[in-house]
Amino acid sequence: MKKSWSFSVIMSTIWNFGFKLYQKSATMPALEEAILIEEKERFKGMDFEISEDEKKSSRSRFLKKKATSASTRLTQGLRKRSKRVSDCRYESISIEDIRDAEEETVVNAFRQALIANDLLPPGHDDYHTMLRFLKARKFDLDKAVQMWAEMLSWRQEYGADTIILDFVYNEYEEVQSCYPMVTMV
């Protein structure tokens, strides 16, 4: 008694056999013949009847479907890219500012301690920076204040806040002669 095989079972078997070979066979007739021979040997033990015409037509339909879906994915991807309009070099990143109530109270206490010790310059009054210092010292206010004071003294010693104003650029003319598109403000 011969088994009746459904089209989907046959196609999944062919797919498992190697889609890569079938892709190449669309342009290489010699390879197509080798695949047919391998298919015959593979299906020799199975009892089902499918004509050669059905095999060829199902394979060609399968390959056409794959080719059109790949083409569609490519064109849709290109459309998506062309619709993106950006005024800057980098895409905008939105960061949601989620604050924990306990951390916020500790940061406010840290801010008040810095203000009391006159250690909070206007450029450094940032919630996340203060939270980073507190986390580094496991929320110990005294250690965080000491670390903050050391940070400010280091910045003053090495001129981190005034580097743009104090920087002397002696090679400016030489660089401009080699790279005229580079401008320094």
From TrEMBL:
GO cellular component terms given for this protein: endomembrane system
Instruction: Give the top-rank taxon of the lineage listed in the UniProt record for this protein.
Output: Eukaryota
Which InterPro entries does the UniProt record give?
CRAL-TRIO_dom_sf, CRAL/TRIO_N_dom, CRAL/TRIO_N_dom_sf, PI/PC_transfer
Membrane topology listed for this record = Peripheral membrane protein
UniProt xrefs under Gene3D superfamilies: CRAL-TRIO lipid binding domain
Protein's cellular compartments:
Endomembrane system
- Residues annotated as domain CRAL/TRIO N-terminal: 126-151
Record protein name field: CRAL/TRIO N-terminal domain-containing protein
Main location, first listed in the record: membrane
**SUPFAM superfamilies found in the cross-reference section:** CRAL/TRIO N-terminal domain
Query: What's the source species for this entry?
Result: Dipteronia dyeriana
Under the heading Pfam families, the entry gives: CRAL_TRIO_N
Q: Provide the organism lineage as a comma list.
A: Eukaryota, Viridiplantae, Streptophyta, Embryophyta, Tracheophyta
